[in-house]
Each structure stands twice: as structure tokens, then as C-alpha cells.
Amino acid sequence: MDNKPIDIGRLGAIRCVIAPEPRTTLEGDQRRDREGNPLWITGLSIRQAEGRKTDVVHVVTSGQPQGLTEGAEVRVTNLWANEWAVDGRTGTTYRADAITPASSSGGASAPAPASAASAAGGRGKSAGGDS
Question: Which residues contact 103 (CB under 8 A, 6 or more apart)?
């Protein structure tokens, strides 16, 4: 399956709705990336720039995002969608280089990632999968 970059500039407001948590295996061990860094998963709501539609996606990062507060606007760096299929199940996982509080830029609203729904070719659902 393909990794697809998401154009953050095409999205509206992005907010943290679930604080970062360790991304774990079924056995409860924290997953790690290829370099051995621990993976974290954060729930984000993405309001489309036009209209009233909001998607919730779960975004994986290497290393724990710092300073995020549930409900606060955030900035996402290098967001990618990855569609997957395993044993007849399909989904989309999202990865980013970083998730930081938007207020660190002086309170200005951060540009948001292109609608995760349209960029991922689906409805913006995140399976939070086992990729």
C-alpha cells in the first residue's frame, strides 16, 4: 500500500482530543520504530476548512509529543496517511514527524493538514491499526 503525504495547509483547525499514549502491541509492549524509538499515538480532531465536518484520526509519532492538552489546538509536522490491508481487514494509519501545541507560535492558528478524509481517499477513519 502507498504512503500519501497530507497537505496540512488545506485543513482547518486541528485539536488534540486524546492525549499521547504509548502505542502498544497486543501483548502490551510499547511498539518501536526502525531506529528503536518508542511510538506514541495521539487522537486529533480535524475540522475541515469549509463546512461543519470534523474527522477524528489517531496519529503515530516517534517519541512522545510534549505540552499537548486535550482540547487545545495543535500543529502537525509532515503528516502521512498509510492505507493497509491484513487478513481481509483494511484501514488507514496516520504518522507525523511531530505534534506540538499551536500556542508555541504566539497563539496564531496553525495551518492544518489537508482533509485526512480526502487525502487518504476514504472517510478519514483511522483504524489505529497494527502496521
Answer: 72, 73
Please say whether the beta carbons of 120 and 81 come within 8 A: yes
Q: Cα(22)–Cα(67) distance, rounded to whole angstroms?
A: 15
Half-sphere exposure (Cβ direction) of 67: Cα atoms closer than 13 Å: 10
pLDDT tens figures, 58-103: 999 999 999 999 999 999 999 999 999 999 999 999 999 999 999 7
Burial of 131 (0-12, 13-18, 19+ CB in 10 A): middle
Question: Which domains can be identified in the chain, with CATH numbers?
Answer: 3-117 (2.40.50.140)
Asked whether the whole model's pTM tops 0.90, one would answer no
- From residue 31, give the alpha-carbon distance in Å to each of 23, 68, 101: 6, 21, 24
DSSP label at 10?
A: G
Distance from CA of residue 63 to its chain's centroid?
Answer: 14
Beta bridge partners of 13: none
